[in-house]
């Protein structure tokens, strides 16, 4: 088992000469490995999460599914963050409030897209969040985009265009035949790119668990208000009892995915963490095709393939 050092301990060891170059390299590689593991764990959890979210939204509705995810995250993480709430500054609270608002809006579009569209089409469109997140990480976090990365992002864009265009001919006119749910997914992708970036920033300025707890608590409260206004609480309780398995699965996987991603951004750059995590679209598409019996046109198969290749290549870089 490798030793874990606090920041102060590392500093004292460095000054004393005990903390050798070999130890520094060992700790750096350990942290890097943990960051990469968290990013891939986020991809795994988000892939299964979106698969179950689609099932949940189609059985209990968007806001009911959102409330379940937010409530689970709020209750489960509270014991781990309660002792740190008093140290939040005014700036931290404003940042987390902004994150909560954007997360709620983006999640509604994301969930509606999964509810209305084929998951094999919606997921590659949602992957539009990847280049947008990279762009935001460049402008806000100072990440550098290479020519190769730019070319691969362009490849992903081409794949997305082919995927969302369901016209049998590859022509663009004033009346594009857009796959159901794809436009909503594209709007959601913009919001998710902002969420990805802000989660990374907030996790670094506060704590990863605190960031996810605050965000999901905000989502839970907002969803609860909507359910109250729509008078859906009686049906919500019935729906959750009837669909307990799917509801629990989507809540666990989504929360685990965001927690893993938040931790990854504290070790890796936001662009790298999101690029690796974005490979969740591959798993979600495979699950959608395998279990939902979804069928796509040839052009959409090509588009999905290009999007997946681009995302995988970016993850490799």
Outline type: globular
Main sheet attributes: strand count, strand direction, barrel closure: none
Query: What pattern of helices and strands is seen along the backbone?
Result: HHHHHHHHHHHHHH
**How far is the N terminus from the C terminus?**
29 Å
Determine Rg (CA atoms, Å): 20 Å
Helices, by number, come to 14
Low-pLDDT segments: 1-11, 166-177
Compute the number of strand runs: 0
| Strand composition percent | under 5%
> What is the residue-mean pLDDT, rounded to a whole number?
81
Quick rundown:
80% of the residues lie in helices and 0% in strands.
Question: Can you put this structure into words, describing what you see?
Answer:
The model is unreliable at 1-11 and 166-177 (pLDDT under 50). It is globular, with a radius of gyration of 20 Å. It has 317 residues and is mostly helical. Helix 2 (21-60) runs antiparallel to helix 11 (244-265), helix 3 packs across helix 11 (244-265) and helix 9 runs antiparallel to helix 11 (244-265). It starts with 6 loop residues before the first helix and ends with a helix. It is built from 14 helices and no strands.
Layout of strands and helices, then pairs:
Elements: H1 7-16, H2 21-60, H3 62-81, H4 90-116, H5 119-126, H6 129-141, H7 147-164, H8 182-205, H9 208-229, H10 233-242, H11 244-265, H12 270-277, H13 280-292, H14 298-316
Helix pairs in contact: 2-3, 2-4, 2-11, 2-12, 2-13, 3-9, 3-11, 4-8, 4-9, 5-7, 5-8, 5-13, 6-8, 6-12, 7-14, 8-9, 8-11, 9-11, 12-14
